[in-house]
Design brief:
alpha/beta; Aldehyde Dehydrogenase, Chain A, domain 1; Aldehyde Dehydrogenase, Chain A, domain 2; six-stranded mixed sheet; binds nicotinamide-adenine-dinucleotide; oxidoreductase; Ald_DH/histidinol_DH
Length: 484
Amino acid sequence: MQTNPTTVRLELLIDNKAVPTNHYFEVRDPGKRSSLVAMVANGNAAHADQAVRAAHRAYLSWRDIPVARRIELILDAAQAVEAEASALAETLVREQGMLLADTRRDVANGVETLREIAAIAEDFLKPEQHEDGESLIQIHKAPRGVVAAIVPWNAPMGLTMAKVAPALVSGNTIVVKPSPFAPLAVSRALELIARFLPDGVVNVVHGDGEIGPALTRHPLVRKISFTGGIETGKAVMAAAAESVKNIGLELGGNDPAIVLDDAAPEEIVPHLIKRIFVRSGQVCYAVKRIYVPQSMYGAFFDTLCEAVDRLQVGYGLDPRATLAPVNNHNQFRHIRGLVDSARRDGAQVLELGGRLAPETWDEGYYLRPAVIGKVAPDAPVVVGEQFGPIIPVVPYGSEDEALRMANGTEHGLGSSIWTRDVDRGQALARRIEAGLTFINSHARTRLGDRHIPFGGVKQSGIGRVRTRIGLAEYIEHHTVSLDK
Ligand code: NAD
């Protein structure tokens, strides 16, 4: 094993103590695979049990701490995470491979999420009350108990804090399992948060084997908040069924963007580019297929290709880079496979963009951004989630046909419509099967994220995160009725 002086050794965090294990797994830099970033404790079922029991012991007193005090502690913790934001963002680049600008945004998003949920919690958690001369009904918003939070690698800070914040403010305790492909920054942030809280309120376990399934099966876990792929989500749901746990699932997406015939390619392409290639396309809410009217297909395709060709692929800490490598070997192989199969099937495949360091290209999971034209609407690259720097462009004849194709997969996370006609856009938006539909943007609004409950329909998931709607997923309504 090749280690270097900066290789981190990361243990489990249970009851606010570092817990070593017998086996460790490697985390390598996706942009420089020869660099061993960390050795991480590989937990097993016994560690899952130890962490859940610690969280359960802590829950029995944390649930009685007044909401206002819980909020104060979370705000103090948010400040501590913010103070380390730069270091956390750099660590993320090394373990996760993304551009520094993106990892900074992820860290800022995590901190903001802690504050955003803290700001709405006190009002939200007040009991509802109905009273007349003879009876009093109070509906309390009680915590559920121990939450298991299972997180992917693609935006770990924001996604983890969107679980930690609502769980803790409402009186639950938590066991977090970060992804083996990006465990470091998020574990450091959770360690900082845990220092402000009683032992066992926040626990962190790691592993690429039995620990995930053991957590999702544990009888003392009352809620699972899972973000990841659809197939893993199904396994989590099956495990949760054994002891009827509450589950929240944020799963894969295949977001369509429908361009209407009154949109101008040169106006919308600069916006679309950002939402296709953000984080090298490794975002659940990235644009993953574009439907364009036959009449403007050529003009749109050329404008898109010109813009994609200006992207510069390089290492995440290289300030010239506008596209980073993908995160891991599976992703790399999956995207290469889609590109090759599209080419074999006769699609027009353009691999574009510049290579900033051709001499070290093969040392990382670097891929050139690809635009796929003349592609069948039911090709794997269109109907499956690519999760990489690749975008198929499909022509359509009528708006109904575009809608049919957009709704024609089992995904239903985000979507967008690009038009100058607001009424037409809004009417079409209501017919899209998705958790979110944006008009003239995608997954971002000028109003910011804090008003948006994120989540999907169909196989893209169950439940919503953020806002009061997301907070509601972490409580039980306990009705106490009194007849006087
Ligand atoms: P993944 O499903 O492979 O892994 C997610 C997490 O689940 C990891 O921590 C992994 O170790 C763990 N895990 C694996 N098997 C498990 C099991 N049987 N039981 C319990 N835990 C298990 O996903 P990934 O590759 O890390 O992330 C990419 C996927 O996540 C994409 O499909 C993407 O769309 C999705 N995602 C969705 C959202 C959303 O908000 N809907 C956000 C981000 C990512």
